[in-house]
Amino acid sequence: MTQTTDVLQEIACDFASVIPAVDKEATHERWDPGIGPFEEERQLEMVLDALASKGEVPANIEREVRYPESGRRCDLVIRDRTLEIPIEAKLLRFRLDNGNIDPNMYKSVFSPFPERSSSSLLTDAQKLAESDFGLPCGLLGLYYEKENEEYQQLRADRIAEKFEIDVEYWYDLEIETVAVEPFERLRHPHHQKGAVISWVVR
User: Fold this and answer.
1) Model confidence band, residue 2 (pLDDT cutoffs 50, 70, 90)
2) d(CA 185, CA 155)
3) Dihedral sign, CA of 168, 110, 8, 71?
């Protein structure tokens, strides 16, 4: 275990601990109630606000931090005197509000091909590894599924494992899943439970 691994485990645990409470208050103007339908940036904001209200957000977490070598922004950076961990986060939400499979989500997670307007969690791993932040770095997935999901491959632990394999295959990076922290009893009919997954890239 390393200090970076410990921090990434703690972040996943902290996020998962407040998601059910956030879910009880989260109401979207367009979609069914619950945190699941919200956009990635808003979910991060709501979770961090909930942790702050409990006094549990480390003061050294910064959001939307500029990459040292470019104008791009990193979702989260944790800093203290001896440690800097840049973290990119993504929603892992394979079903739409109506329960249908989201045709765009798979590439949002697993596509190895960078695009001008967007990046996948996979290309985020490469982006972080090649950045002037340096290694190690972290990745965070906010994963949602419905009860009795018929696709066995859509399980948090399976997604975490596949992601490791793909990062190693495409980029020859050392990556490890450090946490799969479950949560459940959410209000949305198709985003009913899930997990916060964190990985460390070395």
Assistant:
1) confident
2) 16
3) positive
Domain that holds residue 139: 3-201
How far apart CA 28 and CA 46 sit, in angstroms, is 13
139, pLDDT greater than 90: yes
In the chain, what are the helix, strand and coil shares in percent, each to the nearest 5? 35, 25, 40
Q: Which residues pair with 181 in a beta bridge?
A: 196
Report the first-to-last Cα separation within the chain, whole angstroms.
13
The pair of structure tokens assigned to 28 is: 């979207």
pLDDT of 93 > 90? The answer is yes
pLDDT at 84: 92
For 194, the enclosing helix (H) or strand (E) is strand 193-201
DSSP string of 104-151, one letter each residue: THHHHHH--S--SS---HHHHHHHHHHSTT-S-EEEEEEEEE-TT-S-
